[in-house]
Every structure is written in structure tokens, then in C-alpha cells.
Amino acid sequence: MQRRDTKDLRRSAQSVSTVHLVRHGEVHNPQRVLYGRLPGFGLSDLGHQMAQGIAEHFHDRAEAGRPVHLLAASPLQRAQETVAPIAERLGLPVTVEERVLEAENAFEGLSEVKRQLRNPRWWPLLVNPMRPSWGEPYKSQVSRVLAAVKDLSDQAVAAHGEGAEVVIVAHQLPIWVTRLWAEDRPLWHDPRDRECSLTSVTSLHLGHDGVESVSYAEPNRELLKDAANLPGA
């Protein structure tokens, strides 16, 4: 999928499609484990509340004439539990999309990662933060997410015409680096600077030449103050 030049990153009156990348809700994780792709990490009570809230957000959009035509999610438990209320509220089936999985990470399974990194055994993994050397390359994450975005967008447009909308429930890091790519920014970043809160919506507006623009929303902003947010999770 192509990215238009920065000077052209503006939304046209009618995009060919819009793909909303939704981050999952808060996870029950009292030990603050960097859970990555590990099984068994489902939503907390607050996370389920967030999932209901994001379902209402897309239902309200549908009532206003902006329906979702295709729904997909990462196979990980937290993403599936987030997408379930959306599917129920909109009456749509869910496509399981492996290409939007959380990034691979060598620190997966560790708790209190910042403290653990004081141990010299982990230092060889920190030699190249721009790749990053501790996990899946940022470029690889962008490539697989964009492939999923294009395929799902093409399916929605083929079935429903231009202006079709797709929702994909995924994970913070793959969503964030995809946004960085779309906005022609370096993929390397400080995890604390990510604008991708729990159940946030990062929307890619696609034209015939690729990604035209990006918009961002936090429909559950009022719930975020109570959330435990682990960077990179």
C-alpha cells in the first residue's frame, strides 16, 4: 500500500474506504507482565466496560449514516473480548486476522521490565533501539498491518462500494508504527510518546493511491484515568 506525500495527507470529501484500527481494552494484569502474545490475558472489568463503550461508539456512527461493513480482530484474547460487543451491537461476524497480532518481543513474560533491564543479561538486546533489536522490526509490523488493511478494505469496497468502513481490533505498537508510517514520521520512538490509548480509534482514510490521511479519537476518554496502561502491551 502506498503512502501519499506529506503535502497530500488530507482527507478527500469521499474516501474510497476508512479502516479504523482500534486498540483493545484494559487487560487484567496485576503483576504488570509484558504479556505480548502470551495466552490467558483477558480484559479487566474496566476493559469490558471500555469494550461496551467502543461498541456504542460505532453503533452511534451507524445510526448517523456511517455504518461499519466489515469487522476483524487479532486472535489474542484481549482483542477478541474487545471486538465481541461491537459484533453483537452491529450484528456483524468477526474475521480473525493474524496479521494484526501484537509485535514479537524478547522481553515477553517479564514483569517490571524497567527494573529487569538493569540486569546485564538483557543489555545485548538493547544495542539498536531504532530496529528494535529486542523484537520484531518496526518495518515488518507496518508491512503486515498494511497488508491486512488493504485486503480488508478491498473486500469491503467490493461488497459495499466506495465509502465502505472497516474496524480492526489490534494492539498498540503495530497500530502506532503504522500511523507513524502513514504520517511520514520515523518509526523509531519513545514508547511513552505513543498516542494510542486503550480502545482508541486510529482511522486510515484510503484513496485510490493509498493512505490519504489519518485521524485519531478516544471515545472512552473518561475511562482512561482509571486504567492501568503498560507501555508496549
TrEMBL record:
It comes from the Bacteria. SUPFAM superfamilies: Phosphoglycerate mutase-like. It holds the Pfam family His_Phos_1. CDD domains: HP_PGM_like (cd07067). InterPro entries: His_Pase_superF_clade-1, His_PPase_superfam, PGM_Phosphatase. PANTHER family: BROAD-SPECIFICITY PHOSPHATASE YOR283W-RELATED, PHOSPHOGLYCERATE MUTASE. This is Broad specificity phosphatase PhoE. It comes from Nesterenkonia halotolerans.
